[in-house]
Design a protein that fits this description.
single chain, about 110 residues, mainly alpha, flat
């Protein structure tokens, strides 16, 4: 099951990439990279969801994407820093980690 969670994590990283790409892409190659990131994030999410519960998988995926996008905006794109944002991201990540730790593999799933 660890393999599937690694796939969800990778899908979340690609989600961060395409969200940032949608905002900052301004040349054709950047738009192409954004399209590839969209495809890979969704494909990897589907692959992982075959052995993990869809609701939990999607919650973890979007949590990774949301937290990563906010952090990347602060670090790379000079989005204003706010202690409240960081605390709420920490709370979000705690929930994501909690969901991951209590989730069992889907019985009878083929992989």
């Amino acid at each position: 099951m660890q393999k599937e969670w690694n796939i969800v994590f990778l899908a979340g990283l690609f989600e961060i990439g395409w969200v940032v790409g949608l905002k900052h892409a301004n040349i054709p190659i950047a738009w192409f990279g954004t399209a590839i990131a969209i495809y890979l994030s969704m494909h990897l999410l589907i692959v992982a969801s075959k052995r993990l519960p869809v609701g939990t998988t999607y919650a973890v995926f979007t949590g990774i994407g949301s937290a990563g996008t906010v952090i990347l905006d602060i670090v790379l794109f000079q989005e204003p820093f706010s202690l409240a944002k960081i605390l709420l991201i920490g709370l979000l990540l705690a929930g994501v980690f909690g969901l991951k730790t209590i989730t069992k593999e889907v019985e009878g799933a083929k992989g």
